[in-house]
User: What shape does this take?
Amino acid sequence: MSPEQILPVILCGGSGSRLWPLSRKSFPKQYLSINSKSNKTLLQKTQERIMNLKNIKDPIIICNEEHRFIVAEQMREINVKPNKILLEPFGRNTCPAITLAALKAVENNNDPIILILSSDHHISNNQNFIDAIKVGIQYAMKDRLVTFGVIPDYPATGYGYIKSQKPTKKGIIEGFDIEEFIEKPNTNKAIELFSDSRYYWNSGIFLFRASTLLKEISKLSPGILENCKKSISQELLDLDFQRINKKNFKSVPNISFDVAIMEKTNLGTVIPLDSGWSDIGNWNSVWKVSEKDKNSNYTKGNIFLKESKNCYVESENKLIYGLGLSNLIIVHSNDAVLVINQNNAEQVKDIVKELTNNNIPEGENHKKIYRPWGNYISIAEDPRWQIKLIVVHPGQSLSLQKHHHRSEHWVVVNGTAKVEIDDKVLILSENESSYIPLGSVHRLSNPGQIPLKLVEVQSGSYLGEDDIIRLKDDYGRI
Assistant: This one.
């Protein structure tokens, strides 16, 4: 691999709790289409915005193992086959993830330039972003550790800051030595930083040669490097994914890349970034980058607003009528509604924590659950019965399985179903049904060209998802 070739590394960790109720631990914001006319997700847009870079390679994606099939499907939708999808057994912040990616990058005697991207950023001016990356590549080839500092357009308190040794020259993209990193400031400090052109928001985007980074990690954080090496010393392959050794990874410190490396290194270079960047950190930041009407309202869904201003209102399926509203965020999902003042957007993460601490499932889990074969929604439930709407993608199959505590009744509402029950095989069309007795070995498949939709009625003494005994599975879940 020539030195000029660029290997993107996309970090897909995080639960996105500040964008609850749409973003939750079971399906966080990076996999959602937020503020997108094209319906592309934040992850997909992250990949697409770099695809015209010269010598760009297929990405390494690092995600939670729970989300592996979501990542694979979303990449397939935009015709991208990742170089690797690394599965973290649990989060360990950005330094371990970046170290793992660098170790994989230098396999087979390669030494690419690595571009580290977060999967949940919004960038409105893509050309300016690409121009900054191209300048960054020149510094990375001189063995600098490059980060990108966003030129602030207001005194933000929600971002950390980077101080360069020299002020920005308007209209010129060049690199500056880094003087210091500043944690998220209070309002007065943010106003002070905003008035000085040597300060930038910390974007969390990085660029460096893989070997240069590994040498710095070896010098500054050798324990991280050693434990990360052990974590991937054996290729624990699972279909198109590589698992990280859980025991060894548990010994890796939970630390950010800035704290472990960038704040200590003498190789740091910051490049000003003026590209309409936002980290989509909370609903207020989503509202700021959204296309609004003449009253500064953004609406999505079946929404009617009158005599209202500065509002963000979104609904998945219900009618919302607002009258005389001001500075509100209203977000309706299929199982929860959030209503807060714009000024309280940062506190949504505390709401999620409160819900989780009180064992309220809506805090972390959606009603709509995604699986590699499709998804399902729990429509209604009781201790002894549950009704689900199941969607199976064309050509996909659920596992061959059985249950010890429940029977099931399937009714096809759209498409064609292939149903295997013990030794029988049935082909069902719309309005046809099948009964699966308790203990029967069964499998559901979609042999058709359109999504299969069916209603499943479960009944029994226990309805938990752990009452699934998989006998065969196309997705390696046995």
Summary: The chain has three domains: 6-278, 283-357, 368-472.
